Amino acid sequence: MYNYSYWESALYDQVYDLVIVGGGLTGQSTALFYKKENPSAKVLVVDRGFYPIGASTRNAGFACIGTIGEHISDLEIDSEKALKKRIQDRFRGLLLLRETLGDTAIDYKHTGGWEIFSNTADFDTANAQIGKFNTWMKELIGEDSLYEAVSYQGFPSIYNRCEGMLHPGKMMKALYEKNIGLGVEFRWNTPVISLNTVGTEVLLEEDRSIKADKLVIATNAFTSKLLPEVKITPGRGYVFVTNEVDDLKWKGTFHYNKGYVYFRNLGEKRLLIGGGRNVDTKAEETSEFGINESIKEYLVNFVNNQLNFAKGWEIEREWSGIMGFSESKSPLIHKIGNSTLLVAGLSGMGVALGMQLGRKVSQDLNSL
Asked: Cα separation of 45 and 304, whole Å?
């Protein structure tokens, strides 16, 4: 049995106004906006890691709203209305992120984004839909002729001028510093064992617990570990960075094969590339970090055979991150009991959606 000392009890043995489980972009954004609206509230963020390690600091650093190929694919599993809302939320979420943290702090670069094609039939299918989706974008985000058919390095491509790239680590550092400045408390390296959503209590190791008036679960891919009844499927994403290569021709953000492959320049001489989850989908439905060798081989071959890198390049660094997917790819905000909200299922668009969702959850909390 773990017993607090007199001194510890004065600091930690208290009831918080709000406890947020999950210190990623969505969780910390919830804390930020709630604390701004409720400056006297005691707000605590709890995370199992030394820093948030799910996807917020392990993604590829894309600031994107989606390619035409991805939109066409999404319409096969969801309604036009739902997809339109996701696109609009992504665009507004990126604007909110940039306005809140500042482009300099997150190392944002407005490069534009290209969807490239190696199959003429796939390009023709997407190209035929440019008019339709440009009409959507005018309606949803007020941008005329957003998508444009172009050529990039010999590939038929569709260009989106509204996309860019950023530094996820700097993004989370800037958000954390804003929260600290507002007086939000953090408990890192604090695994949550279970939840009492009726009593809004977070149960920890060594028989410790944290009590709150309100509770937010912002664990995304790891939600099923605490709430197994919620249908959020984890999806592991693999990323690697090359060593410096001379005359790197790919500058900007790029998608291929309905968004399953994504790559960008990292500085002037390195390429960052990730994805390929569709090569072994079932194996990648895991919340365990690791590297799938078949996916790694697929991406290496893509760099060699599609991007035509010269022989001799090497992988300088590689890692994986864990995303959380809802059944429709639309994120979930659910009320559990009287005082608990769940937010999860960002479906690979956490950078675009996380802060927007955090603000929405903070608003919903005020009405609990």
From this structure: 44
